[in-house]
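Mods, move this if it's the wrong board.
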Amino acid sequence: MSRMIFISLPVQDLAVSRRFYEGLGFSVNENFSDDTTACVVVSDQIFVMIQTHDRYAGFANLPVGNPREQSQHLLAISCESREEVDELGRRAVAHGGTEVHGAEDLGFMYSIGFTDPDGHAWGPLWMDPAAAANGPPEHGA
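Not the wrong board. Structure tokens:
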């Protein structure tokens, strides 16, 4: 069985968040979307369910936190090239996101950081295929 990942994120304004994620180049599956939820298709196996706070709270059974005030997660997503990492960062800022940190080049891995309009943290990265297969070099090497 191939596993799928469904990430649920509470958002203040569903329309704004939907435009942001579509601006990154992702599509929305309308079959799993309504006026409280949009199912963002990141890949065949990764989906981000952006939900109004009321809808999200119904699933979480806890108060909805503010990701701008406390770190809650970092959603790292692989890219096929350094250029794709940079392009996602440009698109994020152009569509209402905020840059958290610019390019970090570790040789075997290249990444940036940004948040969506609600402050959810994303870290697109490219990893050298050899490092992905063999693991990164030892720290300090």
